[in-house]
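Please go through this chain and its backbone structure tokens and walk me through the local backbone shapes. Keep your notes short.
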Amino acid sequence: MARATDAERSASLRPRYFELPFGVSGQRLVRPDIGLVSMVSRGPEHSYGLDVTILDAGDLRLTRAGVTLAHRVADQRGEWYLSAPGWAPHLPVEMVEPMGDADLPTSIAELVLPFRRQAPLTPVAALHCERSEFVIRGPKREVRARLHDDRVTVRRGGVTVSRYREVTLQPVDLTRKQLGWLTEALQGVGGTRVDALPPPGSRLGVPASGLGRWSGSEWDTGTDLEGFVTAMVTARLREWFTADLALRAGGQQDTTGLTEVLAGLRGELRGLAPALEPRWVEDVDEEFDWLIGALGGLSPTTSSVVKAPAVLSSQRYLRLLDVVVQASNVPRLGGAGSAPASEVLAMSVQQSVESFLKAGRRLSPTSPPADWAGLALLADQAHAAALVARRNLPTWARRVDKRVRRLSDLLPGCVDPQLEVIERSVDELGPQQAFTAGRRYEQLMIAQSRARRELLSQWAQGQTRLRAATRASW
């Protein structure tokens, strides 16, 4: 007889999960002819009643994100419970702490803060679980398998909203035939085998049963703008939460991962600006600038790592996070939500490029620095719009962005900030210092003028190629 492989042995030891009708009577899983001789209770210490109070915000935002926070009481012993398998390893699959007092332990409160944000936690449901545990034995009283049988009643607002029954079969030393028969026996009384048991929070009914958009939304070239924005922001939010939790859990000390995610989302929202509510984009953009700066910028220092916990717990940070979460559920669109995303994205790129080219045509070597700085901002907007469009129109948007960069790469040096610094300091300088500063000013002006003339000399050709790229079929 061929020996079982390591993979087969591993598979045979994995627990199997079943959902059974609540009212089905207990099933004795005994069949002596295949070596399953008896099924006995593990005793009162393993069979008990458990009262669970689910804690959440009023809109069940933790539950909908796949996070279960509760306090449990069994045999008059209280404990705090946290479970978030979908966010492992940054949040625990299961975490239990003794209930020393009525306040949520700081270690747990900090981990759920990005999900709770500014909302207060309140009891939202009560669960009563009757747990029974059994062992299934062989001819020599050896343990072949263990079985957990949970019957749960869910009450909300004093009203019973559901009852369910969950059975976990944990093989210890079962043959393939024995495991197959046990599975068939549980299915024979109405059981349904499932890959994993759902978290308790998902049993609370609407709206908890809808796990929001955290599982990820898909889009394609035919998706409307609302679906596209929702999917894009949700994907970034998942990255944001993951980077946030890595810092909170202490698994990562470098804030670079978080600031890069924030900068990416900021850039994408800038690229979508023509399709979003202008005031909303302006406010959020300002808050992202503050947050990235507060976390040390895109090249964080040791001091920014020290400040990170205070920033992540601040009301300003939680308010921004809440605003973006709301936007992932109801995008702040300017009115084109039902239009095909590809069309809107292409139009956004074309409008941004046209604004960039129009501003460039008005410039001369002697134009004020503010006008040249404005051209740089318009170049950034055109780049951001093309970056977002690459999600749906990769070839076309990449070609347009390449042409934008051919011109925008000539912008550095067209506005030299040192000139303004020298101008402001002249009144405070002595004669010799003023003379030195004047010579330096003249050198910088010559270099700035040279950079401007270089860009303008290439503008006509660059403009023609950029226009051709934007008009090409996408």
In short: The first strand starts at residue 16 and ends at 20. The chain has 14 helices and ten strands. The chain has a mean pLDDT of 87. The chain has three domains: 6-204, 225-329, 341-471.
